[in-house]
Design brief:
The chain is of the alpha/beta class and about 140 residues long. A 5-stranded parallel sheet has the order 2-1-3-5-4, with helices on both faces. Strand 4, helix 4 and strand 5 form a beta-alpha-beta unit. It is globular, with a radius of gyration of 14 Å. The two termini are about 25 Å apart.
């Protein structure tokens, strides 16, 4: 598995936790997040990273900002992206099993680094169930054109 990781100025702490998790798991990744304390615009990070997932350069993406909302909205504008904003482990599991999400968004101002790590671990380890869920994902793909 290959993961692209990105964050704006409000997601740097959780991004570092996720990097440690990826390192420990031996998962290949590229970090395209900012390294600054000053305010930056989340679309400048979310959109290019989402495009790279959509093109197949990466299997999945993990995007972090203050609430996760901005990153998820921006990512979901890219055709082929199914970005899930997740703030609990149960949702992380279900969005992989049922929705085949290929991007995970989290909010640093909403959850702590320990929970973020658990969410990312669960999301990375959970496979898509397929079956009836594949038909539903197919409808979304068809709608995207």
């Amino acid at each position: 598995m290959k993961v692209i990781l990105t964050a704006d100025h409000a997601g740097m702490t959780i991004r570092n936790e996720v990097k440690a998790l990826l390192d420990e798991a031996g998962i290949e990744y590229e970090d395209t997040g900012c390294d600054c304390q000053g305010s930056v615009d989340y679309p400048d990070y979310a959109l290019p990273a989402a495009e790279r997932v959509a093109k197949g350069e990466f299997d999945r993406g993990i995007f972090i900002c203050g609430t996760g909302i901005g990153m998820s909205i921006a990512a979901n504008k890219v055709k082929g992206i199914r970005c899930a904003l997740v703030h609990d482990v149960y949702s992380a599991k279900l969005t992989r099993q049922h929705n085949d999400s290929n991007v995970l968004a989290m909010g640093e101002r909403v959850i702590g680094s320990g929970l973020a790590r658990e969410i990312a671990k669960t999301w990375l380890e959970t496979e898509f169930d397929g079956g009836r869920h594949a038909n539903r994902i197919g409808k979304i793909t068809t709608y995207e054109g």
